[in-house]
Specification:
This protein is an alpha/beta fold. Helices cover 35% and strands 18% of the residues.
């Protein structure tokens, strides 16, 4: 028996067969097969990638269309960019901007103005600040409402045409189907909504809008309008039959113009910071006698060319603004709210000429000047002259303005009131000067206005109204306002209780046809005339004093 270690019964190992190398033909066939497989694989992968891209594109287009429709619906509803980004996502909005031609993209100051929800909003600022662009884009958010009617106003027709031209460019680009009717100066939108353009060359022009209804009223360069009364009557048309349609008022200003004082007062520019909501509350008595509190909200903004990224680097325009007279440069370049363009007395400033009210020393000489009108305004002002020859306007009595709803004083009552003020102060008035027209006779037997004033003890001299007196009077005021190089101070001061005289200095414009005179039709002209009369009467002279509060005999 063989041992277990015997290997004689194991099969022989298989013979290793040496492989034949492939022929050239076989190699070529194998290469071709592999090439076809790779091509098929690449084609399949490319197809998958293309299908994926196509699907992504369709989904993206669908999302964009939905987002765009959502954006437009929210814009029509009054929701602006910030809220749209919060809901639709900033990335979607940016994607829309990349895939659509951007006609208007507001910068931060414009966004703040457009997002303001207050009833009345003022956009103030320098030139090139972008306020006008946002201004005429503002009402487009509501033009999908068929009952919406908007109105844009400029002071004069020439400037209005410029505003219309810019509106045509923007409106046509944003809404190509909008129609503009040249004859009527009105845009008609596909929904039937309209935006009209008009001007206020004079106070009577307001009558064109009586009885009309506008959901939006905007006044460009509102400070060119001399009186609030014009705008107040226009705003009587700010209403809409659709209770769901917001009604609101917007305005712009360069902080220049004859009406800048009332504009700043209306929007509380000097008392409230920009960008803050101002609430004016009042109480209305209902027909049944019940009381109802109502409120009006306001806000004002200020901006400069440096806030506008489109203009901030325009060196040529910056150089132009910088080359203007100092008072224009402050308003146009830096947006300062104390501009004096077109004002008769740009050399007057509160810092230099307005001082706190104080008790006038009894030894100082006192004078008064008056200009009387029953409907166009009446003013009596008092000045005191110090021993050094400085003139102090320290008191005023102004009445009979067109906007006054209270009592209007007759000439006799006006004189009596002036005397009562002097008697209450227990002061000597050395000379009174009044408009010479009060001496005019009213018929053969009727006494003059001065005769009636004299009956109550008001004795005065007629003002100098000879040829050239208006020019000389204005020149006299300029002389007194000028800073003396030796004393470093002017010769004319106004105490801060004389608010109407201060308004006159800041708001009285030059005559548009005669730069040597003021606008005689302006409501502040009576305060100016009263001041001019008394200063031209040589108050530094030595009139003869008859007695305590007693008229002077000449």
């Amino acid at each position: 028996m063989d041992s277990p270690d015997s290997t004689t019964d194991l099969p022989p190992p298989p013979k290793r067969v040496k492989k034949r190398p492939p022929t050239k033909k076989e190699k070529a066939e194998t290469k071709e097969i592999r090439k076809k497989k790779v091509a098929e694989f690449v084609k399949l992968q490319k197809k998958k990638i293309d299908e994926k891209k196509t699907l992504e594109k369709k989904l993206k287009e669908k999302a964009e269309k939905q987002a765009w429709a959502y954006v437009q619906s929210k814009k029509r509803s009054g929701i602006l960019s910030k809220e749209i980004e919060d809901v639709a996502g900033a990335a979607v909005v940016n994607e829309i901007a990349r895939n659509h031609k951007v006609i208007f993209q507001p910068f931060p100051k414009q966004v703040a103005y457009l997002e303001a929800a207050e009833d009345h909003v003022l956009a103030g600022g320098g030139r090139g600040s972008g306020k006008s662009e946002a201004f005429f884009i503002e009402p487009l958010r509501y033009v999908s409402n068929p009952v919406f009617r908007g109105l844009f106003i400029r002071k004069n027709l020439k400037d209005l045409q410029d505003l219309i031209g810019r509106a045509i460019d923007k409106y046509k680009a944003l809404i190509p189907s909008v129609q503009y009717k040249i004859k009527d100066q009105i845009f008609v939108f596909p929904s039937g909504a309209t935006i009209s353009f008009g001007h206020l060359d004079d106070e009577q022009a307001v009558e064109k809008y009586r009885g009309q209804e506008y959901a939006f009223i905007g006044i460009d360069e509102i400070s060119q309008i001399p009186e609030y009364n014009w705008v107040s009557r226009l705003l009587g048309s700010l209403r809409c039959s659709d209770p769901n349609q917001k009604t609101y008022f917007r305005a712009t200003t360069n902080w220049t113009g004859v009406g800048i004082d009332w504009v700043k007062e209306y929007f509380h520019v000097d008392t409230h910071p920009q960008g803050k909501t101002i609430v004016e509350r009042s109480e209305v008595t209902l027909p049944d006698g019940a009381k109802k509190e109502v409120m009006l909200t306001k806000k004002w903004f200020n901006s400069t060319i440096f806030d506008n990224p489109k203009m901030a680097n325009d060196t040529q325009y910056l150089a132009f603004l910088n080359s203007q007279p100092e008072y224009l440069k402050r308003a146009w370049l830096y947006g300062e709210t104390t501009s004096v363009e077109g004002i008769a007395f740009p050399d007057f400033s509160k810092e230099t000429h307005v001082i706190p009210n104080f008790e006038i020393p009894r030894s100082w000489k006192k004078f008064s000047g008056a200009d009387y009108g029953y409907s166009d305004g009446a003013a009596n002002i008092w000045i005191a002259v110090s021993p050094e020859g400085d003139h102090y306007v320290y008191r005023e009595f102004v009445c009979n303005k067109k906007k006054d709803t209270g009592k209007h004083y007759t000439a006799k009552e006006f004189a009596q009131k002036a005397l009562e003020i002097e008697q209450e102060a227990q002061e000597y008035v050395l000379r009174r000067i009044i408009d010479g027209s009060v001496w005019d006779k009213r018929g053969s037997n009727e006494p003059s206005l001065y005769d009636e004033m004299r009956q109550v003890g008001y004795i005065a001299m007629p003002a100098d109204q000879t040829a050239g007196s208006r020019r000389a009077g204005k020149n006299k005021i300029h002389e007194l306002l000028r800073i003396d190089p030796e004393t470093k101070k002017p010769k004319l001061f106004v105490t801060d209780n004389c608010v109407n005289i201060i308004k006159m200095f800041y708001g009285l414009p030059l005559d548009s046809k005669n730069a040597e005179d003021v606008d005689t039709k302006h409501p502040l002209d009576c305060e100016y005339d009263a001041l001019r009369y008394v200063l031209m009467s040589r108050p530094s002279g030595r009139p003869k004093l008859v007695g305590y509060n007693t008229p002077i005999i000449y």
